[in-house]
């Protein structure tokens, strides 16, 4: 029943029903711990992120592995999870595969308050998983 003086949405959750990248599958995929090639991304170099994905279900299937970045201390407000890359892989039942992503300086850049396309030195969080809600994360420092 509608009450004119009471909000009808106070008790409702603010959480999304389905996170970005959510999808149903006939099989189940397991992600091992993510590995970074270094904890520091030096100027002019690349950072490699790798994770092993295993099809632990009873059927063959496709999986979309997603890579998100978060600039922890930016000059301007940045997205909490910014999708930077993804890879679609097909795994047979019981098969495992290493999925690798490369992060460069270009992946860290954004338009600052002076409308310059730069990246800032500091801590970044990298996240990998099948959707935007269930991620595993690690941090690295960009010089």
Ends apart, CA distance between termini:
57 Å
Instruction: Name the structural class.
Output: mainly beta
Work out the number of β strands. Answer: 11
Low-confidence stretches are: none
Mean pLDDT across the residues is: 90
Helix fraction? under 10%
Number of helical regions: 1
Radius of gyration computed on alpha carbons: 19 Å
Query: What can be said about the biggest beta sheet?
Result: 5 strands, mixed
SSE sequence, one letter per element: EEEEEEEHEEEE
Q: How would you write the strand order of the largest sheet?
A: 3-11-10-5-6
Strand proportion, as a percent range, falls in 35-45%
Shape: flat
Q: How would you portray this structure in words?
A:
The protein has 143 residues and is mostly beta strands. It contains one helix and eleven strands, in the order βββββββαββββ. The strands form three sheets. Strands 3-11-10-5-6 form a five-stranded mixed beta sheet. Strands 1, 2, 4 and 7 form a four-stranded antiparallel beta sheet that branches. The termini are far apart.
């Amino acid at each position: 029943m509608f009450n004119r003086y009471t909000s009808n949405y106070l008790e409702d959750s603010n959480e999304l029903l389905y996170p970005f990248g959510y999808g149903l599958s006939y099989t189940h995929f397991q992600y091992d711990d993510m590995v970074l090639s270094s904890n520091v991304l030096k100027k002019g170099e690349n950072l490699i992120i790798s994770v092993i994905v295993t099809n632990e279900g009873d059927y063959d299937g496709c999986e979309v592995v997603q890579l998100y970045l978060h600039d922890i201390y930016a000059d301007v407000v940045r997205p909490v999870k910014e999708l930077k890359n993804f890879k679609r892989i097909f795994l047979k039942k019981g098969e495992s595969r290493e999925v690798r992503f490369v992060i460069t300086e270009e992946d860290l850049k954004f338009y600052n308050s002076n409308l310059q396309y730069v990246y800032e030195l500091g801590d970044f969080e990298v996240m990998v998983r099948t959707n935007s809600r269930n991620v595993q994360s690690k941090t690295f420092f960009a010089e």
